[in-house]
Amino acid sequence: MLDPVQVGAVVIGRNEGERLRVCLASTVSRVDRLVYVDSGSVDDSLEIARRFGVDIVVLDPGSKFTAARARNTGINWLRENCPDIVLVQLIDGDCELDAGWLEVACAAMARLPAAAIVCGRRRERYPKASVYNSLCDREWDTPLGEVTSCGGDALIRIDRVVAVGAFSPELIAGEEPDLCHRLRSHGWEIHRIDAEMTRHDAAITRFSQWWSRNKRSGYAHAEAWSRRGDSDRQPRQRVLNNMLWVLPPAWLLWPLLWWRVFRRSDAAYASHIVLGKLPHCHGIFRFWLDRLGAKHSILIEYK
């Protein structure tokens, strides 16, 4: 428990099982209040949470499950039941919180008065379990300092996040960059500090999981471009880049692209970058088809 600032935690999960047990064990004693928000688990996740004695909110299955909706529900629960809480650690149920993270993160919040979010280093728990896990571990190796967005694990200043509308609950992915874009447009900052934050268990062992995860990413980029337009050029650039590379005239250049990436990394990462454009475009086209048909997006899960 950290004084004098009151710190809460929102843990979200869906069928995380043992991963959830590890998550709760690493977090519950380090915060003043923890609420677990469950999105329709059919395994023993709820029983695990009950054994820890944490507060539990079960989302109504009548509305679409999204990580954004779950986080908002947890944030609102803490606001209503623990009004003295200033900072909230968001953590996904497949992650373990580092023992020293909150002390370092709270100190960073204190010395960064414009910060709305502080995040740190996320590592993959089993990077050698599969090539897909190792690719996730590289994905978490992001720049430090003031950044444009955070991931699912982060320490937030609750009043600033709520002031901009918190997460957009309808988004099936990309909800963190969306929130961070709105925070930055209001003059707040997002900082990534050089400190261990969480260990993540991607549990990706099959090609189909890798495909679904990248498809979800493509969908998120297309939706981000649709929502933010020219106010954020990054989603547009990613969508157009991926689409250009999958056009037949560009196929002859794939070996050149693979070689350029390979020279900076290795064969696995080069293959991921080149072949990943296919599921990304699958997600992009899925988004546009959904919009043309006025369909609501459906959660794209990979595990």
Give an overview in words:
- It is a single chain.
- With 303 residues, this protein is of the alpha/beta class.
- The protein has 2 domains: 6-200, Spore Coat Polysaccharide Biosynthesis Protein SpsA, Chain A (Alpha-Beta Complex), CATH 3.90.550; 207-292, no CATH class.
- It is 47% helix and 19% strand.
- It contains 12 helices and 9 strands.
- The chain has helices at 18-27, 45-52, 67-81, 101-111, 131-139, 158-163, 175-185, 207-228, 233-245, 254-264, 267-275, 277-292, and strands spanning 6-13, 33-38, 55-58, 85-92, 95-97, 115-124, 145-147, 154-157, 189-200.
- Strands 1, 2, 3, 4, 5, 6, 7, 8 and 9 form a 9-stranded mixed β-sheet that branches.
- Helix 9 (233-245) crosses helix 12.
- The mean pLDDT is 92.
Summarize the structure.
The protein has 303 residues and is an alpha/beta fold. The chain has helices at residues 18-27, 45-52, 67-81, 101-111, 131-139, 158-163, 175-185, 207-228, 233-245, 254-264, 267-275, 277-292; strands at residues 6-13, 33-38, 55-58, 85-92, 95-97, 115-124, 145-147, 154-157, 189-200.
Give me the CATH superfamily of the largest domain: Spore Coat Polysaccharide Biosynthesis Protein SpsA, Chain A
- What's the overall geometry? globular
**Biggest sheet features:** 9 strands, mixed
First-last Cα distance: 33 Å
Structural class computed from helices and strand pairing? alpha/beta
- CATH architecture descriptor name of the largest domain: Alpha-Beta Complex
Helix count from the secondary structure assignment: 12
Order of helices and strands: EHEHEHEEHEHEEHHEHHHHH
Mean pLDDT: 92
Report the portion of residues in β strands.
15-25%
Please give the radius of gyration in angstroms: 19 Å
**What name is given to the CATH topology of the largest domain?**
Spore Coat Polysaccharide Biosynthesis Protein SpsA, Chain A
Number of strands: 9
Helix content: 40-55%
Classified by CATH, the class of the largest domain is Alpha Beta
Tally of individual domains:
2
Point out poorly predicted stretches.
none
